[in-house]
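User: I'm preparing a small set of examples for a lab meeting where we compare how different chains pack in three dimensions. I only have the primary sequence for this one, and I'd like the structure in token form so I can line it up with the others. Please keep the answer compact; I'll paste it straight into my notes.
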Amino acid sequence: MRPRKIAIAAAALAASALALSACAPSAPPAASTATAGSQTLTVATTTDVVNYNPLVGNSRSDYWITNLMYPHLLSIANDGSKEPQVATKWGYVNNTTGYYEIRDDLKWSDGQPLTAEDVAWTMNAVKKDKPSGTFYGQLTNLDTAKAVSKTRVEFTLTQPDSSIVEEIGFWGNIVPKHIFEKADSVATFANDGKDGGWVSAGPYVLSKVQVGQSYTLDRVSDYPLVKGGTPLSAKVVYRVFPDINTEILALQSGEVDVIANALPPAQVAKLKSTTGISVEEAVGLGYAHMTYNMNNPDLAKVEVRQALAHAVDYNAIRKVVLQGQAVSTGSSPLMPVLKDYYDPSIKEYAFDTDESRSLMQKAGYAAGSDGMFPVKFRLIYSLQDSVTSQWATLVKDSAAKAGIAIELQGTERNTYLAMTNKGDFDIYAGNFAIMDDPVTNMTLAYLPGGAINYTYVDDAKLNDLIAQGTATTDKDKKVKLMREAAKIVRDNVYDNIMYTQNLYFAHSSKWTGFVSKPSELLSIVNPVSLASAHPTGK
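Assistant: Understood. Below is the structure token output for the 538-residue chain.
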């Protein structure tokens, strides 16, 4: 995602308003008596790695592989709350100073210890160099980070921000200062292994790349985040396949042990009953949506966006394409799983092509003799996203009934991401994998300059509500503000949110020990999970 400056005006808070947050480290996941062996765990993916630098916006394959080398301060629970990973405690010293206390038993694969200096340097470098992506988008209110000891980082804020500690902790990878500081900029550093290989503080380190074929990672000797302190498989190999159906065939034939991509809903029941295959469920903290590019003069009209919203048969999409494995959010960016924030009074747009036509006429358009209005919108989506590929066709067909022509443009995933980042679309169709904190999510998605503001919205009232939500530490007030903001998003169709769903992932029944985390990004291919997986012995 492109780097964009996010401007947020927030009122000052009294220092006493921010409560100290302290979290004790959790124990490594319970494990069987399995010990480190010589086996290789083979994982299927559908795209090559484009970027080995974890500080830059990336695709799923980039994330899955770099995540095995560059750890995060915090992990996430099924309800969106944060859990310890590298950090053992975190919170606020006062209303403009945050902190992390980190583990003292982690080291990089070249033997250098991972210290608070790596954490502080990473934060400062991202702030200075502005790499595109979610991490930089979280740092709007960061001033400076400093390692005050080997295990404590403190950082000052330009203004109060009640979400920043947990969001930096979860979204930001830590990189080795002694490697990345050699680059002129972390925004342009390729980190492609050509200068002596990769250095990892995760369970595995990348050792061999065959573009279009596979990515091989070798076990590190010391990884204290799993029971026993050593990853169980000697190697993890990501193999590249053209699509999910080919991945499934490879799993059935024994070519791979795990599929990283979420299963198409139509395949879930079948694979659950297939001998030799196990299916795991992961909580969905994201949503599927369409955004309408308001740089297009037609889409800048709220009536046109509302007409498009009324021209979608949401129930049919959830029933036919999702096989009933998805639920409505009420066209709201506040999902039901976020129980404190979810507002059931915000209702989904009704599928009503007559209302769509009426809104198009209100916007000043007249249908021709063929019943079609004189507009055409180009909808982009990833061909590797089998679910969106299916419902995009339904969207096109139902919009045509409302007299609105939609041209579908499905592309290879990395091309789709590049087009998205350039704003090269009229309608963007896809998924946000993890929307865990409403204030942060709205900051990124709906503020001017937000890293994922694909509608290009700039609404003064919405901006103010998000700014107030950023500043306040009063949970009840924050919920009220975000609900009001969500209603503005829904009523103005700054985002057309279609559903949220739990996801399903398949692996060989010959393997066990996987640890499921929310979203497709983490699921059963998160670092702790792959380091804990082992053969059943049967």
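A couple of notes for your slides: The longest helix spans residues 475-491. Confidence is low (pLDDT under 50) at residues 1-31.

User: Perfect, thanks.
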